């Protein structure tokens, strides 16, 4: 479905991207907030292929909820009236749900496009599902590629109508804390970015709404995302102030000041993104690793880790789940699938893990610009296991 309000200049592209999908069973609903531009006349051209409703509403979240309540399919999604699906998106989604019908949602790769629909770049932060990062750090999932299993909303409820900037992030958190989300390696949608877009104009109001969402679903008043979105927001605000003050002969000075601020803000954000979870993109973990999993059927947690030879003689790992110490393991170099029995009291809860390592090393090179991370072990996977393995060591 598509929520719409006064986006007549873009909505034809949106409609065409939906109707051009090669999957045959698509129900398309447009919920319009009583637009005063040419939205209705554009939609009328497709009257035999979509449902168009135009009436006053309480905003975007309210419109999406109306559309989802009307939808009859087992898989639902929303596409904003200035964004587009890419060819084959729905076919990839249906195949994924057929393979794994218990998934809460799926998402994929996408592009950022300009006001004229030209591709600017890949949406660069997309990555496989990481619940801890989703709750505590950032919304790395491009909403224009997300498709939901319809009956999930019967369990967790629909979108929060009081949210105006982060409702897509918040609903993904709610679903992710109950069900697995699956990343699909296909380009499935594009977000249109331009000056009047809501995300670009949200400012401090958007930032504090995102903070409220993170605090609602996480255990920290100042999670890493507070720094990431705060720096991003107030860098923009300060930059606009500098530009307003430094005019005429002061413009060059203002440009230098903005460049200096941008450089240091970028370093801060990069450091927070890299260090906060304790899990690096190459699979290495540092001294304290944070991880989250939705409730699982397995009564054992399984840690698949490697200790390459030559690092140290032994490594000691302490595993804490939902605030309770559940295991201490002393390991020599090798590859392991460690089964950790979970207390019955947390079997059906979202699992929030902290894994603490006693020993660490730095890579051999310590020259300027070299890798100076404190590395403890390699993570191959973290998930559930139905029963204890006969042998934890392989």
Q: What is the topology?
A:
Elements: E1 2-4, H1 8-19, E2 29-32, H2 39-44, E3 51-54, H3 60-70, E4 75-76, E5 84-85, H4 89-99, E6 105-113, E7 119-122, H5 131-136, E8 147-149, H6 152-156, H7 167-176, E9 181-192, H8 198-201, H9 203-217, H10 224-245, H11 251-275, E10 284-285, E11 288-293, E12 300-307, E13 315-321, E14 324-331, E15 334-341, E16 351-357, E17 377-385
Parallel strand pairs: 1-2, 2-3, 6-9
Antiparallel strand pairs: 4-8, 5-9, 6-7, 6-8, 10-17, 11-16, 12-15, 12-17, 13-14, 13-16
Structural features, described:
- The chain has helices at residues 8-19, 39-44, 60-70, 89-99, 131-136, 152-156, 167-176, 198-201, 203-217, 224-245, 251-275, and strands at residues 2-4, 29-32, 51-54, 75-76, 84-85, 105-113, 119-122, 147-149, 181-192, 284-285, 288-293, 300-307, 315-321, 324-331, 334-341, 351-357, 377-385.
- With 394 residues, the protein is of the alpha+beta class.
- It has 3 domains: 2-212, Spore Coat Polysaccharide Biosynthesis Protein SpsA, Chain A, CATH 3.90.550.10; 222-275; 284-385, Sandwich (Jelly Rolls).
- Strands 4, 5, 6, 7, 8 and 9 form a 6-stranded mixed beta sheet that branches.
- Strand 6 and strand 7 (119-122) form a beta hairpin.
- Helix 9 runs antiparallel to helix 10 and helix 10 (224-245) runs antiparallel to helix 11.
- The longest helix is centred in the C-terminal third of the chain and has 25 residues, at 251-275.
- The relative contact order is 0.09.
- Mean pLDDT is 93; it is low at 388-394.
